[in-house]
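Dear colleague,

Thank you for sharing your sequence with our group. We've completed the structure prediction you requested, and as agreed, I am returning the results in plain text so they can be pasted directly into your records. Please verify that the sequence below matches your submission; if there's any discrepancy, let me know and we will rerun it promptly.
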Amino acid sequence: MMRFALLVCVSSTLFGAGPVTGRWDLTVTPKNGGSSYPDWLELADAGGKSTLRVQPRSGGARQIPEFQVTGSRLHFVFSRADQKNPEVVWDVEASGDRINGTISRGGTGSQTAGRMVRARSDLQWQGPDGLGAHDAEQ
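Please find the predicted structure tokens below.
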């Protein structure tokens, strides 16, 4: 089993991640009826290597060192179980500019849904906006 997992990781690194590659803005809806909250994930291919970052509900973005991409599906363990917390596993699938899936926390889960964030090529740096100009006049 370990060989298979390693092979999948290597193949996603060498051949790109296809439909899942990109930055995704997510809305996570807890199955227990709690309030929905925003998240994001980004799968990038640069220099022949795939990298995955996830912004959890709290804290800063985290690099996920091990993940599997199979076609349009992405699977990874966000955090391993310890004495206080259950394992957190993400399983998502991309279709066009949408992504859906689940986040499982020790047998309970949350639904995820999101859309691809597209980079705008028409935006260019216009220089500072002059916020400090008012202070200089006084």
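Summary note from our side: Helices lie at 2-15, 133-137.

Kind regards,
the structure core
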